[in-house]
Amino acid sequence: MSGWALAWKLARRELSVRFRGLRLLLLCLFLGVGALAAIGSLGDAIGGELAARGRVLLGGDLEFAVSQRRADPPELAAMQAAGRVSETQRMQSMAVTAKGTTAPVQLKAVDAAYPLYGQLTLTDGQVVRAPNAKTVWIGRGLAERLAIKKGDVLRFGTAPFRVGGIIADEPDRLGEGFTLGPVAIVSRGGLDRTGLIQPGSLYESKYRLATTHDSSRTAKAFERRFATAGWETRTRDRASPGASRFVARMAEFLTLVGLAALVIAGIGVGNGVSSYLEARRSTIAMLKVLGATSGLVAKVYLLQLLAVAGVGILLGLMAGIVAVPLVGIAVGAVLPVAPGLTIAPRPLALAAAYGLLIALAFCARPLVAAGKVPAAALLRGVLDSRSGGGWRGSLWGMAAGLPVVALALSTTERPGFAAAFLGATAGTLAVLVAIGVAVRAVARRLPRPRRPLPRLALTALYRPGSRTVSLVVALGLGLTLFVLLASIRTSIDGNIRRSVPARAPALFALDVPPEREAAFRNTVRSVAPTARIATVPLMRGTITAYGTTRVADLKSIPDGAWALRGERGLTFAATLPPGSTLTAGRWWDGVEQRQSLVSIDERLAKALNLRIGDPLTVSVLGLERTARIASFRRIAWDTLGFNFVMVFSPGALQDVPHNLAATIDMPATQGSAVTRALLPRFPSTSVVEVGGVLKQIQDVVGQMATAITVAAGIAVLAGIAVLLGAIAAARAARTYDAVMLKVLGATRAQVLAMQAIEYALLAAIVGLVALVLGAGGGWFVVTRIFEFEWLPDWSVILATLTTGAVVTVAIGVAGTLPVLRARPSAALRAL
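The line above is the sequence of ABC transport system permease protein; the predicted structure tokens follow.
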């Protein structure tokens, strides 16, 4: 036998079913591959569920939506020619009980054809369609908030309705997007009874089609025919673009975090393999003495490592598959759809490929080193100077590492972001490695302390066989992640404490008639005399052209140009709105107010490459209006006041039918009283408590923070694995040191104290570096990604850093306890 067959025979004889010596390799690959498999499978499961249920979630094969109006006869005829049509209207409203308690709702009027797909089901099991003109189906959230049940009476606008049932399943709920309150479904006739639809009222009309035609072609033909009418179209393959985009982005981000964790774990793999091969020193020596070549030795241990890596990868894939339904059970209410048990080949194959390539990349140097050292050197003892694999080991490592980068960049929608993320990870590792090398060099040149334990601890940093670089990397990664998470969380909390309570209004009011603005203000102040009230005209419109470009002609939306996706809130003002700062151009004066001018957000202007004087066209109520750009503004989005991407001059939109929106700034305890005072006098006005909106936002942010924390926790575990690997790799040298010290009269306590001092010195040095790296990363995330102020709580960060340092040092010291149990006689015979 020769070659691979002989290598496998030798490898199989030495392998243990308990994976003795290779458990760290198994653990690291299990953690990394399991995380990647779970993240990828979850994303695919949710994406597949969204695609499979597309027509149900959308409510049709195709949807046309427009604000503040219904389709005119030619538009409706074009839809009906393409298929069966269902019409719905949706608007913000207030539900009022017989006792006078109120709650904001999303009032939805449906026709007899609704739903085209799926079933509208009540909690009592009934499958229903549109209610009669005096009945309403309500969501569970509304029933719980108002403590009402079937048969009770609710008022919307000026009309009373009897609750006919509680909704258990609204088939197109996810496709409706974010709402300020639970749903209440009435018929078209019921909506007419409320009197809520008036000129200028904010509502959205949706027309869903069940068609056998090609949905994309039908949509494009409709858009070309009615290009200036402001229609927004969706097909069943993008029934919930917001949910799909959120899932895709979170999956992409978490995949990169998981990949970074796998790379970090790869360092632990390398350390663990070095430790394993060090323990096989005598076996390798015997193979060399008996004539084994370097290539055969490398093949034997490569096959062993591949066998164990295969088991670790397989276990990780199984854990990833099982994790998907468990996540669905644990946080099913958070996810857009509930994922079940699924086997997604693509993410599983990617996770396995990543795991195998990472294992090969980090095993290459110790494998090459083990194969090339002569038998005589192997038999000289643990302090023999051994090569680290040289350029051959580095070459093999790069050959396995480059495909990892290629896979990461080729399987993401944003390769630039992925490259920056991986580059930052690699840069952090490079900095820590450089610091480890510098620590060894500086320790060698420092004067020796007179006390024996500190002197031994200092020399341990650079003695032969020391793993100072690996320990610095392991400690640095863990502490940097602790500081990063603490700085991000405390900064976000600081922004919330500083900005939201001080500047957020207590109430929003929508659809205030302009001619009754004075009565509205008087009603509010009759209950809350000190209330500060701000009103703005509010309407909805779609950007249809900018500069010389028509939006309909774009193949894709430019990065940062989110305002081109669908309708946006529009307003006009004579003066610069609060919370805005001019960055270019100037505000219109008295004469210019009568012209058609617009001021836009500076970030949108940059994304669209706009200049002062360029034209901007919007479609409002089915008609196009073109204005000239007069200025750019920086907007304080975190004030929770009225912030508009586009603010027009009065001459541009003043003649468009519209209502007012209002913010009411007052003590939150007066909110209910103000709402009760307003609704009888302004039945068409919707009042929304800002506290409820903030609660929804905080829930979403909390869910995202939890996902990021869990992913970062996997990276922390990988960092701990690196620390354990570094300790294991240095065990032989540390055993030699401990035995020699014991022979010379040292006690176990003294040996342990020496190693504790060594780890404490490293933690103190690395702690400062981790503070800089972690705080720098936190600053970038907070200020550049979240665009918040940098408001970290340094006391919390330092406490977190100290705690993390104590924990990691304790892990390091605990990892050396087996060394203390080594018997001098047995250890000396093995040296």
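Note on the example: The radius of gyration is 33 Å. The mean pLDDT is 80.
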